[in-house]
Design goal:
The chain is mainly beta. The protein contains three helices and 17 strands. Among the domains are: 75 residues, Histone H3 K4-specific methyltransferase SET7/9 N-terminal domain (Single Sheet), CATH 2.20.110; 44 residues, no CATH class.
Length: 268
């Protein structure tokens, strides 16, 4: 074997397996897809743009006809899926919405209570009262009389369909009964209804306590003192205790209820 190797040293040298790539014109496939980019003898390879029949576009790296390397999928609605592929399999991804907001599948807080900010408010901060953003797109588009702004179009409660924002005679879709109720309750409309506080969006906070109140004994709450005020709770309570500007009340059943604040004390 050694003699054979020495006699054929020149023939046994490694040879580069890099396959040359060439640029070709747009290739149309029978499926309705098309590709424009570089090729090698095995197929699509290198960098190119692949368009699916549903107008989704992949732009990035290929190898042997498969997505391979870095690239991004662009959807007609504006979303972008940016990622890294390995032989056609997506191994790392980042989803970016049409308005530029980047999705985080680990700590996603957008549009979750108590954070209800638009993307533009995430990026630019909240505006002062009277100048708040009404929609994520600026400037906000004008809503026709009697319609509701659903984001993708204008909803007419009379015909119960959603029309194009560019043509009120072009129907986009027909929402379900459940969505129709949601649109009327939540979407911007013309005329604008009277606005006011929404109690369902309020959050109640209580003062932190070092010791939980005992249901039966007053001396279990050494940090509280009997109230010298006479706040009206709307019903009779056996005990009312004051803690700073906060009050705790206890009913005859022995249960402590949440605090009340900013009561006016009576004059002795």
């Amino acid at each position: 074997m050694r003699k054979f190797s020495e006699a054929h040293k020149e023939q046994c040298k490694t040879v580069s397996l890099d396959i040359p790539r060439v640029q070709r014109s747009v290739k149309q496939f029978p499926t309705g897809s098309q590709y424009e980019g570089t090729w090698d003898v095995l197929g699509m390879s290198g960098y190119g743009v692949y368009k699916f029949p549903n107008d989704v576009i992949y732009e990035g790296e290929f190898d042997d006809g498969l997505f391979h390397g870095e690239g991004e999928l662009k959807y007609p609605s504006g979303e972008i899926l940016r990622g890294k592929w390995k032989k056609g399999a997506l191994i790392d991804k980042t989803l970016i919405f049409a308005d530029g907001l980047e999705y985080d599948d680990i700590d996603w807080s957008y549009c979750r209570m108590p954070d209800r900010r638009f993307t533009i408010e995430h990026n630019n901060g909240l505006q002062p009262a009277g100048q708040s953003y009404m929609t994520p797109e600026q400037p906000s588009r004008e809503v026709p009389q009697g319609y509701y702004d659903t984001g993708d179009g204008f909803y007419d409660p009379k015909t119960k369909v959603i029309y194009s924002v560019h043509d009120l005679t072009a129907i986009i879709r027909s929402p379900s009964v459940r969505e129709q109720r949601w649109i009327i309750d939540n979407c911007r409309s013309n005329p604008i209804p009277k606005l006011g506080p929404r109690k369902d969006l309020y959050e109640e906070w209580v003062e932190p306590m070092l010791h939980l109140p005992n249901n039966s004994r007053q001396d279990s709450m050494p940090f509280m003192a009997p109230s010298k005020s006479t706040p009206s709770f709307g019903q009779d309570y056996d005990s009312v205790y004051e803690f700073g500007s906060c009050y705790w009340r206890k009913t005859s059943e022995g249960a402590w209820n949440k605090r009340f604040i900013n009561f006016e004390p009576t004059v002795d």
